[in-house]
Design goal:
Blueprint lengths: L2 H19 L9 E4 L5 E7 L2 E6 L8 E8 L2 E8 L4 E10 L2 E9 L2 E9 L1
Antiparallel strand pairs: 1-2, 1-8, 2-3, 3-4, 4-5, 5-6, 6-7, 7-8
Length: 117
């Protein structure tokens, strides 16, 4: 094996190792989610926030939240579509799972788990 071939292999291995060291991008909030009750909610950018809108079910078309954040962690407000009550909310995303927590005042909170569609 020539010195050039050895250097080429070393360079290729170095590039491959550096690519493996790059952290994975955080899971995004954008997309369609299946709510705990079975409806589909769409989350997309709206201004500097992310808006949550129901796409299916009894309250289809209704906006039910607005969140800000990044890297799988978001804060904002969540609205119960059945009674229009607004809650302070947080969202944590891990892979295809979203943990949503809404509180009138702490510790009066409700938690739901949504799955990415």
């Amino acid at each position: 094996m020539t010195l050039n071939k050895i250097a080429g292999i070393g360079t290729a291995m170095g590039i491959a190792m550096s690519l493996m060291a790059v952290p994975a991008l955080a899971d995004t909030i954008e997309g369609n989610w299946k709510t705990q009750s079975g409806e589909t909610a769409a989350i997309g950018k709206c201004g500097g926030s992310y808006c949550i809108k129901l796409k299916t079910g009894k309250y289809s078309g209704k906006s039910i939240g607005r969140m800000k954040g990044a890297n799988g962690s978001y804060k904002g407000s969540i609205i119960d579509p059945a009674d229009d009550k607004k809650y302070s909310g947080t969202i944590k995303i891990s892979g295809s799972t979203m943990k949503m927590k809404g509180c009138v005042v702490w510790p009066l909170c409700k938690t739901q788990t949504w799955k990415r569609k």
